[in-house]
Structure formats: C-alpha cells, structure tokens
UniProtKB/TrEMBL annotation, chain A:
Protein known as: Putative spermidine/putrescine transport system permease protein
Keywords: Cell membrane, Membrane, Transmembrane, Transmembrane helix, Transport
InterPro entries the UniProt entry points to: MetI-like (IPR000515), MetI-like_sf (IPR035906)
Tree of life domain: Bacteria
Chief localisation class: membrane
Automatic annotation (TrEMBL), chain B:
Superkingdom assignment: Bacteria
UniProt-recorded name of the protein: Putative spermidine/putrescine transport system permease protein
A GO BP entry: transmembrane transport
Similarity comment text for this entry: Belongs to the binding-protein-dependent transport system permease family.
GO cellular component terms given for this protein: plasma membrane
Gene3D superfamilies for this protein: MetI-like
Listed Pfam families: BPD_transp_1
Amino acid sequence: MFAELRLGEAIAILPFLAFAVMFLILPTLGLFATAFSDGQGGLTLDNIGALFTPQILRSFSISIRVSFASSALGCLIGLAIALAVIRGRLPPVIRSTLLTFSGVASNFAGIPLAFAFLATLGRVGLVTIILREVFGLDLYRAGFNILSFWGLTLTYLYFQIPLMILIITPAIDGLKREWSEAAETLGASTWQFWRYVGLPVLWPNLLGTLSLLFANAFGAIATAYALTGSSLNIVPILLYAQIRGDVLQNQQLGAALAVGMIAITALANVVYLVVRTRAERWLK
Amino acid sequence: MRGNRFWSWVVFGLGAAYFLLPLLATLEFSLSIRRDGYTLDAYRNVFADPGFQQTFSYSLIIGLCTIIVGIVIIMPAAYFVRLRMPQIRPVVEFLTLMPLIIPPIILVFGYIRLYNSSSFLPLTGSVMGTNILLTLGYVALAMPYMYRAIDTGLRTIDVQTLTEAATILGASRLRILTRIIFPNVITAVLSGAFLTLAIVMGEFVLASLLNRPGFGPYMQNIGANRAYEPSALAIISFVFTWSAMVAIQLLARFAPKSSARKD
C-alpha cells in the first residue's frame, strides 16, 4: 500500500540533496577545478607548484604546528580533566557543571575569545599585570607574546579542551565498573588497569578526537584574525587576504591554497572516520 | 586511594583556573574604562551604538532564517531516511558532516567563485541575493548539529508506527510530517536551533567576505578601534552563548527519554 507514496518520499529528500550539491559539493569541486586550471581551459599543476614558496610554506608550517599543539594538548588536558571529574569520585554536581560549561566554552570561539585573551594575557592584560606587580615575573620580557605560536595555542585550548571533554565523556562512561573490579580482583594495579584495559579501549576514540580537534583548529580564522591581525600568517588568514585582494592577485593561487587546506583537513578526518568505526565496538 | 581523590581536585582546580581567569580578566577590563573605579560605561557605549543594534538584529534575523530553512531542508530528509532508506544513512551522514571537514572560509570562497555576478546564478549580484547566500551558507555550517539534533529526536519516537497509523487514517505525507512528526520532535529541533543561533551570532568569515553587516565583522571592527568595548562585547557574547546552552539543557529535561514503543 506504500508503493504509490514513493514519489512523495523522493520529494522529501530532494531539497536536502539539491542543497548538498549546490552549497557543499559544487563550490568545493569548483575550487579544485580552478586550482588545476591554467585559466585558458587547460590542466596544469603550476598553481599547486606555486604553493611551494617560502612564505606559503611558512604559513602551512605554523598552521600545522598550532593545530597539532592545540589538538594534542587539548586531548591530553581534556582527558585528564574528564577522568578526574568522572572517575575521581568528585561530587556529582561538578560533573554536570563541567559538562554545561564545556558546552558553552566549546562554542565560545571566534572574535570574543580573542578579546578575552587580550584582556587576560595581552600587554595590559590582568594576568600579565598581576604576574608582574605581585610576582615580579614579566611575561613579555621573558619572551611570551599573545601574538605568537604559544599565545595562539593557549587561546585555541579554550575551545579545544571543552570539545575534548564533551566527546570523551560518553567513552569514559562506557568503561564499565566491572572491568576495573575484575582487573583489581586479578591483582592489577591502577596503572596496569589503564595500561592494559582503559587506554586500549579509549585509544581509537582518542585518536579520532585528536584528528577532529586538529581540523577544528586548522580551519579556524576569526580568533587568530582578531588576536593578531595579520602578524601571524596562518593559512586561513593568508587565504582571507588572498580572497579580499583577488583583484590584484591570481585566483588560481587562492584556489590552490584552498585545495592544500582541504587535503590536510581531509587527511585528518579520514583518520577520524576510520577509527570511529573501530571505537564503537566496545562502547555499545 | 585517598591520593587519587586529592589529584582529582588538583586537576579540576587547575582546569577551573584556566577557564575562569580569562572570564574574570575580561569582566574586570570591561568595567575599568574610568580611572576612578568600576563603571558600566563600556556596556552603555556598546548598547547605545547604532552599529551594535543594527548588526546584532541583522545577525539575529539571519539566524532565525537559517533555523527555518535548515528545518525545512533537513527534517524531511532525516524522516525519510529513518522511515524508508536506512541504507543511504551513511551517505546522508557524510554529507551533513562535510562542513566539519571543509572549513567555512573555503566554502565561502567556493560560493564567491560559483555564484558571482557573472555566473549562472548571480546571488552575489544583489543585496537580497547575498543575504540568501549568507543564510544558505549558515545552513551548511549548522547542518552537522541540526541533522544530529533532529535525528536524535526521531530516534526517541516510533516513526514507523506513527506514520502507518496516520496513513490509515488518510493523512497525506506533508500532513504527517507537519502535524505528527514535527510536534513530537520539537524539543530536539529547538535544541539544534539554539545551537545554530549561538553559531550564527558571532560568525565572522562568511559575513565579512560576503560584505554583509553581521555582528561578527562589527565586533572585529570594534576590536581594531576601541580599548574597553571589546571586553564588554566578549562578556555579552559569553552570556548569549551561555543562555543558548542553558536553554538547550532545559529543553532536554522536557524531551521524551526513550522510545514510546519498542517491538
């Protein structure tokens, strides 16, 4: 009796598919086509080759380093906090507060986050002043700068750590009490439990989250732009400048930059998608 | 095992310090516009600025349009996949996750190249067209969250039985979707909607590159030109995001906890 409804059902999914083609797939494919075109209808690798200049390579290098540092530290610190709160027998109210706050902080990115860190660790930031006046430690004389690799990494951690906490909490909940009890009965120490049971189960999840956080940081632009202007040339800021000034520069180079970025985030996410399927095995 | 608990408090305390210090510093800075003590002048300046009012309401309207368009596009697709074609779910899920793989700046670059004034669909050629393009771009950014929210809502109700019952009673597909399914998943849809709003309100790169007067570009401009007002804006944004998340939590309390009927 449902056979005659098939057409109606196809219409239900049509807007979604049309949207995905027009606003996700075609724009991306268009950039690929531009990146490999010589402007006269021929194919070329010249635009990709043009990426290998010292300035652009430096941008990719700083982007990759900031993304990797903020995702790796975000994973480690987020895991430590989540473990402390969930399995460290702290009062339950702390757990719910942590999760609510993580929801807020993981979405508190972009321009306001840059403002907050300027007010904290900028030249006249509160923490900078307190450290100087009270503890006699002049951060800026010691070589720290909010407009630097470590400054940006420290800022990115503000949304990376909470994202890690939100993603890893269900996985930690999935570590059954029985497992640690069984390990304990068999005479395992806490360290042995984590080494042979806990971490191997969480491992695919950790690796997956690492790549998600990496992509998250790699594509972010607003925080860095509001924080550093263009003094720290990460790839998205370079691309932003390229798009703004398209009249002067060549469009193919911008498209090649975009393709380079997609290649790197896609690589990170392929890792995520592959390990996610493995992660779900134990956490039913 | 007592040591275990001690270290838990240490880790938690360090984390709390890292997360609360920037908020306190920003709050303190936003109140320090005068030398003779704390005032709310920076907030007064922000709220009195016509630029703030215009860009805030512009982004709010675009955000609401994003939510409506998002629901209209995603809801029928999620329903259809769940009801009839679970085998194409991986494809649909991959499409909805694409915006997490392709950064927003690349999407908008693609839009500018594809829909410029000399293309087959010259959306950037007019103000209205650009507004539409911005809205659709935000639908793309919100899709991973919106789809997941709606799909989670659909999982808690018995889509199959509700659809069969309504069909036997003579309801059309559109009527089933709008009168039966939608009211049943409205709490889930609303939580996706609040998240979308939180994302759209502060979004910078799409609005900036499409030259639309959004709240994100306005904040960036204030940041480049003022000293204390940016901190006030950061606090306002934080409160806005926080309200959206609290709204989501409250909604979760009213949401049905499990499937009404399982075979």
